[in-house]
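Deliverable D5.2: sample structural annotation.
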Amino acid sequence: MPELPEVEVCRRGIEPALLGQEILAMTVRQARLRQPVPADLAHGLPGSVVRAVRRRGKYLLIDCLSAEGEGSLIVHLGMSGRLRFAPLGAPPQKHDHIDWQFATQLLRFTDPRRFGLVLWQAGTAQSVLSHPLLAVQGIEPLSPEFTAAWLHDALARRNGPIKPVLMDSHLLVGVGNIYASESLYRAGISPLRAASRISFTRIETLAAAIVATLSEAIAAGGSSIRDYVHSDGSPGWFQIQAGVYDRAGQICRRCNNTVRQIRQAGRSTFYCPGCQR
């Protein structure tokens, strides 16, 4: 599933081409996604001009303005979704469900598993954040509000293992399976350790590791594990430099111990029992 770095890379990839551009047409070939695409959206959206492309957690927000008012497309890539540009008139492939037509190209939404979302929320850029899907999102780990002190207070009330806690989007958005494993590895913290039993000093290290891991992943273009590619079709490369993720049975890059794989909350966790305590 695309996580915060992949969605941020997507945002940065499409934003320059969309800002100030008018949506001339919208074609919906398959409306049955995780939630149905609003039936009147293809009729009401054309004529709108894109004012901004934002990200909230793993959601893309494409802010639009028209004579009728303002609002935002809320896009989630789900498990296998992606946005890419295509030439005008390019024939759609099997899983190309939605096109937005601009003056010189199409923005095309592809989603083989159909777990993604394309919704519409009328209102100002700020009021859109009150949409039920967005209002429950936790703090942004790359925002100034994310500090070691905040993380320490948040974890003090969580007695479960630290790794699933980091993946709780109601607490902290965008730290998915890959990046939780890698952040804990960098911080030297076992994914099995109770969140509330981690000292402030170690939480300082963890907070810094989360920011560094996500920032480096964005710089590397995200991680291409299954379906994810950039808007131009190129893959991300962060997984190549991973310390533990998907390296079960291999030697730890920092010591002579063997990387292990366990299941936590239904997801694979990778860690080094020698480095992470």
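Annotation notes: Confidence is low (pLDDT under 50) at residues 224-231, 234-239. The chain has two domains: 4-135, 148-271.
The annotation will be released with the project's public dataset once the embargo ends.
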